[in-house]
Each structure stands twice: as C-alpha cells, then as structure tokens.
Design brief:
The N terminus is likely disordered. The longest helix has 18 residues. The protein folds into two domains: about 210 residues, Periplasmic binding protein-like II (D-Maltodextrin-Binding Protein, domain 2); about 200 residues, D-Maltodextrin-Binding Protein, domain 2 (3-Layer(aba) Sandwich). It starts with 6 loop residues before the first helix and ends with a helix. It is of the alpha+beta class. About 40% of the residues are buried. β14 and β15 form a beta hairpin. Strands 3, 4, 5, 8, 16, 17 and 18 form a seven-stranded mixed beta sheet that branches. Strands 12-9-13 form a three-stranded antiparallel beta sheet.
Length: about 425
Amino acid sequence: MKRILFSLVMVAILLLTACGGKPAATGGKTQLSFMMWGDPAELTVWKQIVADYEAANPNITVSVEVSDWDSYWTKLKTLLAANTPPDMFAIDAPLYLDYQSKGVLLNLQPYIDKNPGMLDGLYPQTLQAYQTPQGYFGLPRDFQTIVLFYNKAMFDKAGMAYPTADWTWDDLRAAAKRLTIVGSDGKTTQYGFSFDMWDMEPGYSEAIWSYGGDIINADHTKTLLGEPAARQAWQLLYDMTFVDKSVPDSNTSGQYGGDTFLAGVTAMTPMGHWSVPGYADANLKFDVAPMPKGPAGRVTSVNSAGFVIAKGTKHPAEAFSFLQFVLSTAGQTRLAELGFACPVLKSIAESPTFLNQKIAINQQVFLDALQYAHMKPVFKGYDEWASAVGDGMAPVWRGEADLNKTLDEIVAAADDVLAKNK
C-alpha cells in the first residue's frame, strides 16, 4: 500500500465508520457508499443516477466517490486491507477474479435467483466475464468494443476515402503510409496510425486474433503471444512502426501524453467508446469504422466495467437494489447519456438514446462489433501478467530490442505468472 495509515487515524475512522466502510445510518435512512474510477464529468452523471435512485427509494442514500484510474485501485486495496471497503465498487472485468478469489466479494447469485429474468435483457457477451461455478459475484455496468477511430479532416486533406467494413490490415497499412507526413526537416508531423503499445485491449489483441493467433490458452496455463500466427501480427505492427514509420514509437507518443490521436497528430487508432467525449471536447472531426479484417477474418475485443458488492456490507439487499436500478431502463438510459460507454441493456443500446447522441458518429459500429468480438481474457493474476507483457515489450517499442527474442522472453515471464496464480 502506498498510503500509510497511522494508528490514531485508523481508530478515528473505525469509530466514525460502520463496518463495510460506510457512515452509520442517520435519520432512519440506510446509507450506502459506492466507489469507482472516472473523471468529473462521470461523477456529475452518477450523482444524477443516485438522485433518481434515491427518489425511488427514499429510505436509502448513496454516497459516490470517483477517482482517477491509478488512485482508485490504490485506495481500494488500502480500504480492503483495513477491512473498511465501500459497500459497492466498480471492477474492471480482467481484474474480477483476482478480487473474487480473495473472498472479499458478495455472491450475488441468491439475489439474482430471487429476481427471475433480471439478466434476460443484457447482452450475453457482457455477462460471460462474471460467471463462476458459484454464480455471479459481479455484474456488468457497460461494455467497450474496440473499433477504428479515424480523423476525417486528415483523410479529407489527403483526398482519401474513409475506412470501410471491407478494409483489411493490408489496406490499413497502405492508408497509414499515405497519411504519414514528413516535413522538409525530416521530422514526422503526422502519423497514419497509432495503437496502445502496453495494453492488449486497444492495442495488439485485435491484430493477433485477426491473424489467427490467440492471447492465452483456454485454461489460462500458457501464454500464446509467441505462437507463429501471433508473431505475424506482431511483425505487422513492428514493421509499421520501424519500417514504414507510419506509427509513432513509444518515445514519440509519450511526448503527446500517450494518445497521439487526441493530440491531433495521428489519423487512425483502435479505441473504445470511453474516448468519444474527450475526442469531441478536443474538437476533432472524427468518426468510427469496424476494425480491419485479417487472414482469419475480422476480430475485435470486448471488455466491460462491472459492479461488485463488498462481502462485509451491512446492507446487501439495499446494495443489490442499487445494482438493479443501474441495470434498469432508467439507469441504463442515464448511462447512455453519459456517452463514455455502451449500455449493457440491449433495449437502451439499440434505442435513439444511444444511437442518436449529440456527438454525431456511427454509434452502431460499437454494437455491431459484438458479433465478431472476443472477450478480453479474465483470469487470476491478470494484472501481473499484463505487466510482464507490457513492460517486457517496452524496449521493443522504443526501438531498443529485437522483436522475436523479446517475445520469447516475455512468454516465459508471463507463463511464470500463470503458474504462480493457479
């Protein structure tokens, strides 16, 4: 834990805080605490969702706390270690089993069983990550499919047609080369393509799957990133970066905060819906298209943010009722209005509320992507495994290490993580 909790402070907290990390009930009302990652814009919408819920449940109040991604996980681990977690908190699907296996989450299955049909209206792909032999210990709140974002202004200036559903990775590579601009001083002022060089989700997984490779085997005992088909995809991304030079290396992208598309210096990037509001706020003229097809067809990834309830909550039924509300028509409508993600309730995702948002892009592409999406892997030790891969590949993307030798090394390191977490 990064934050030191002094004993006197802990005594004060424990005296003032009920078990489960929430304030004691006052005025006859049950008080619930909910913690999540996000930004101020998300907090504004969640406060409205809470207000709607409290209006329908006048004997319950919900306090919401939103932190940035890194701060959120640090604080959550601290609160869990101190046995004072919030009643409810957000979870990223790949990290779900790390928390579920530690016994800190409430089994929601008994509550789901008392509400037959509750999950019927949700996209089944979004539920898959949260299923365990003992039932659901979490439920999806929204989902993210990865699609191809493109800067329409850059395409227009180059006199090029926008990406279509017919594109292959070869088409994308050719377009990226045409869209890359090098100044008279030899410096690149515009890149054709960029991708997340650390995280598989908006990065390498789509290419690997579409080339017929895979990330990890079915029982999560072997890393498959070094298999022949996967290496073809790695080689494509490597060559685009260091041969074509149509992709900024990690040193260059770091100069722009890591998102060169947001900075207006990249024409295309694979990304999720979470970036839409930020790209709109940056006044980018952009739209989205399906990910390109590879030798094995078109494949993308789907991931979700979910909800869990702390096992130690004093108010499990009330906490579950809040989760029910978020998954209801009213709750999902508010989430659609937020604009950061796709609703998991099919009726809302396929309604004008989501499809006809103020930001005029082709929202249908995100929904259609579910038909050919692979779930981002969920397994114990995911965070450590992802670090072994992402950190291990970092020298390659800085142009300092051999691709194939590095793949051999990271596969061995990643497999060690899997063995340790079985």
